[in-house]
Amino acid sequence: xxxxxxxxxxxxxxxxxxxxxxxxxxxxxxxxxxxxxxxxxxxxxxxxxxxxxxxxxxxxxxxxxxxxxxxxxxxxxxxxxxxxxxxxxxxxxxxxxxxxxxxxxxxxxxxxxxxxxxxxxxxxxxxxxxxxxxxxxxxxxxxxxxxxxxxxxxxxxxxxxxxxxxxxxxxxxxxxxxxxxxxxxxxxxxxxxxxxxxxxxxxxxxxxxxxxxxxxxxxxxxxxxxxxxxxxxxxxxxxxxxxxxxxxxxxxxxxxxxxxxxxxxxxxxxxxxxxxxxxx
Length: 280
What we know:
The structure is a single chain. By secondary structure, the chain is of the alpha+beta class. It is 34% helix and 11% strand. It folds into three domains: 6-89, no CATH class; 94-175, no CATH class; 184-278, no CATH class. The protein is globular and about 65 Å long. The N and C termini lie far apart (50 Å).
């Protein structure tokens, strides 16, 4: 029998309703980051999967740690996280939902004019509008508006009011926007080992490899984080030890990722994780 109080009790109730739940810290971030995965040292492996919980015993990967398994939620491994928690979060996409996070009054006013009515939940500064259906989870689609669905988590703030409606095209359209210009000039990459000459075949071999990597990123229809990391890993696995990769090459890869909406910070993190993975 499971005994629970406070936030854990709420999480268990959500899990019984089919909402994957997890503890949330005072900083509105997941708690219990395990040493093996701290600061994305593992390459953010759970977020590279289309679905499935974090494989670590503690809730260390945000949305991927959220679960409907009552025994896991109440397990001793999760007890420290619940002691630190200041709330409960859930994975909307895991339950088949999309949350439109309206962060201030102007965003709420815009939604009332432009989006179909659905279930609404009051938040500290605005509202959550919850729809039936899933989609990607871009942030800042408009001023004060984030979308939380697949590969994202939202803070639980109560059941809300109104009737949930089907995710409309108007919300999906918010995720389709022109990518911000990518400032390739700010890319700084630590020097790799080697003398700068590619010994594999010829300079054309490296050029083809970089061009193919750019194209693979450009052609990615979804899972951009995963694709970028794997492309960086593939390039470094071939050329990372000979030192022939220059800032210009890395800039091209970062720009391809930036054109798909990937931030410079995510590019730098993925590059660092790939280097750490290969030891280059």
